[in-house]
């Protein structure tokens, strides 16, 4: 039986700090409905989709805590879960997690068409810093606001209606780290889903990388790692100008050949949809990237034995 | 002091099985001279540059042995070494190696402007098969003709005149394996050099991948892995139709941003030249890909603990 699945990237435009939570959630429900109208069975939302990208500010106390979800779902996100189940559609969504023990993670879950949580992931590659950069208008404080993910890269099976693909989740910066992709590749991943919030330029005035180059990097990371692990990939942005800080768009659906089959054209709320054939992963997995035939782990030790780079004398 | 270096990709057109060795070597000397005339200080030749890509045939005995070099240099390649030293130019070249112990490797060396060998590498990721495929017009018998490389991925320092860049070598199929790049990345590599012979299509009649897609893959592998390891990369083809078996071209020089700064336009002998600024690696190495700040090896264990893929239940 052909293993085909219709999938959507639900790119979100900017979410200003002052935007009420209910407004943002309404946009997400609307995107879900648009995707369902196009026949999508699985919708991928961005990282930290329910709010603005709050790690750009130095926050504390109640204001900071207001950005985290203490359960998933919970009353303030429930309408999204309810509407998805009504429509029989599944989704990936990124959110700020606070555990009962008081630990904080940059997390994502994938929910099946029946509302069951199929997989959970906590971001491993946190960018930014713990301490704020003095004199900067915007910060990148993920290392301050989140613990490093403690779940590794746990592949899981998608829903029956999706032909039970082996799935993996990443979040934003993770997608630039080939180690993360390979750990999923070694679990035979067929469909990678991931959301991101990526600066379109240095919000503090640097000029070495512009939005075009950063979008190229984002797309290339998805393309090449999909190719080298012979997997489909869906990579989804929160895009546009959030309170004066620009985010790239470029949400895309990428084939196991590393070819972009669909890509967002705006920096706003936008659905990008494609039918994917899960069996297209076989060409790569059975030939060029048949790991059992070609990998030589005895020469890869540095990857786990050292953290930083060590130059030869 | 600016760390600038002028570098050339010396793409080679096809080398037919019947072409005399001296003719091929003459073409290489000519490419070296063209590169020198353009100011190049380092020239990168393809994999197995001195002969046709012989693993496409089932060979044995003296005919097979004739493809290997029992020393490097040796009389039949000496003119290339002599001319390079006269011109004060260094080079990377791939060759079939036979050791005094009778072991065979798919190898490469980098030679400095003074003729000294600066680094040596033996291909780790051998594609193809040990046994010939019955009924096939062409074979891919690298696993039959070569041992797996036993040197790992040993970074080394380039010449003084090149500002002593940290260099790494790969050969052909290696460039598609992010583990190989990362092991060099963890040695702070600034300049990756590699040669390849890559089929333009399935020479036995398959139609799932054409030359355009395969060239895209080759270029993307260089671009993305250069970006993710913040290094310059030079990737050089033997191209064109060798005795009825097509090879892709697309030799390229890639920046640490993953941008192709120069690329071959033909499937023939062709020099592609660019001045590279080694300090351009700093943006990536100091920020996005500052490994010591961001890598989490505790979650990468599968990369060394297993060879093949293992799907979840």
TrEMBL record, chains A, B:
Single annotated GO MF: hydrolase activity
Chain ranges of the CN hydrolase domain: 5-278
PROSITE patterns referenced in this protein's UniProt entry, alphabetically: CN_HYDROLASE
Pfam families documented for this protein: CN_hydrolase (PF00795)
SUPFAM superfamilies noted in UniProt: Carbon-nitrogen hydrolase (SSF56317)
UniProt cross-references to InterPro entries, sorted A to Z: Aliph_Amidase/BUP, C-N_Hydrolase, C-N_Hydrolase_sf
CDD domains: DCase (cd07569)
Keyword field: Hydrolase
Designated name of the protein: N-carbamoyl-D-amino-acid hydrolase
Native species: Roseomonas haemaphysalidis
């Amino acid at each position: 039986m052909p293993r085909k699945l219709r999938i959507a990237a639900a790119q979100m435009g900017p979410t200003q700090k002052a935007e009420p939570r209910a407004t943002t959630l309404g946009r997400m429900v609307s995107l879900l409905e648009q995707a369902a109208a196009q026949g999508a069975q699985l919708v991928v939302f961005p990282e930290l989709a329910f709010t603005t990208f709050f790690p750009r500010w130095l926050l504390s106390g109640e204001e900071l805590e207001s950005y985290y979800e203490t359960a998933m779902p919970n009353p303030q996100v429930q309408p999204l879960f309810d509407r998805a189940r009504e429509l029989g559609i599944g989704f990936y969504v990124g959110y700020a997690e606070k555990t009962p023990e008081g630990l904080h993670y940059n997390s994502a879950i994938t929910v099946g068409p029946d509302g069951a949580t199929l997989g959970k992931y906590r971001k491993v590659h946190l960018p930014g810093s713990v301490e704020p950069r003095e004199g900067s208008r915007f910060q990148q404080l993920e290392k301050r606001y989140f613990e490093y993910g403690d779940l590794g890269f746990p592949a899981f099976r998608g829903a029956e209606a999706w032909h039970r693909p082996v799935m993996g989740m990443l979040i934003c910066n993770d997608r630039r780290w080939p180690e993360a992709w390979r750990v999923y590749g070694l679990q035979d991943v067929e469909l990678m889903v991931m959301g991101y919030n990526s600066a379109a330029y240095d919000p503090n005035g640097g000029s070495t990388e512009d939005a075009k180059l950063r979008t190229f990097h984002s797309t290339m990371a998805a393309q090449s790692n999909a190719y080298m692990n012979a997997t489909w990939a869906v990579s989804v942005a929160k895009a546009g100008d959030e309170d004066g800080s620009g985010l790239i768009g470029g949400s895309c659906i990428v084939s196991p050949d590393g070819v972009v089959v669909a890509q967002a054209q705006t920096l706003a709320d936008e659905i990008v949809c494609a039918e994917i054939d899960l069996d297209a992963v076989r060409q790569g997995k059975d030939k060029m990237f048949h790991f059992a035939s070609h990998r030589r782990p005895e020469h890869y030790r540095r990857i786990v034995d050292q953290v930083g780079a060590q130059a030869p004398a």
